Amino acid sequence: MPIFAHDLGAGGAGSAYGVLLFANGAGGVIGGVLLEATGRIRPSVRAAVASTAIYGVTTVIFAFTASYPLAVGMLVISGIANLASMSIGQTVVQLLAPAADRGRIVGVYGVSANGLRAGSGFTVGLLGAAIGIHWSLGLSAAALCAGTLAAGVYALRERRPLSPGPRPG
Fold it and tell me: Which of 50-64, 81-95, 101-115 has the lowest mean pLDDT?
C-alpha cells in the first residue's frame, strides 16, 4: 500500500497511505452496516458471486489507476464488496452444507478462504518484486475475476433443472 500511495502522488506518503487504508476499512464497516441494516441482499450463490466479482473488478481498477480519488473510491467499494463476499459466502456454505457434514465443510471453507488470502499476499509480493506491484496486484485480481466467473457459471448452471420434469427429492 505504501508503494501505491507514493505512485499515486497524493502528497505525503504517510497520510496518503493512511487514507488508502482507511478507505478500505471504511468500506468494510459500511458494507457490514448496509448488509445488516437493510436486509436487501439475501444470501445466495448469485449474491456471493456478484460481490466477489465486484471485489475483483474494483481491485483491478485500483491497481492500474493513476487517480488518487478514484483509487480511494475503489477501495471503499472494494471494502464493501469484500465484506459482502466473505459474509454471504460463509452463510451460503452453512446453508447449503448437509447437516451431517456441515462442520467439516465450513472448516474447509474457512481454511481455504484464509489460506488463499495468505498465499495471495505472498505471491502478489513475490511477483510484485519481479514485474511491479501494480501489475502483480492487477493480474492477481484478474485471476480472481476469472475464477469467480468460472465458479459462478458452474454453480449457477448446476442449480437449474436439466429438464422440465420433477426434480428428484
Answer: 101-115
Question: Dihedral of CA 49/44/117/54: which sign?
Answer: positive
Q: 10 and 69 in contact (C-beta within 8 Å)?
A: no
- How far is residue 145's CA from residue 136's CA, in Å, rounded to a whole number? 14
Contact 49, 73 (CB under 8 A): no
Of the candidates 144, 125, 85, 143, the residue with the CA atom closest to the CA atom of residue 109 = 85
Q: What is the mean pLDDT of the chain?
A: 84
73 DSSP assignment: H
pTM more than 0.90: no
Is residue 160 over pLDDT 80?
no
Per DSSP, the residues of 15-34 read HHHHHHHHHHHHHHHHHHHH
Task: Outline where 65-132 has alpha helix (H).
Answer: 68-96, 102-131
Q: Is the pLDDT of residue 73 over 90?
A: yes
Q: At which residue does the C-alpha cell 471504511 appear? A: 26
Q: What is the largest CA-CA distance in the chain?
A: 65
- Reading the block at residue 71, the C-alpha cell is 483509487
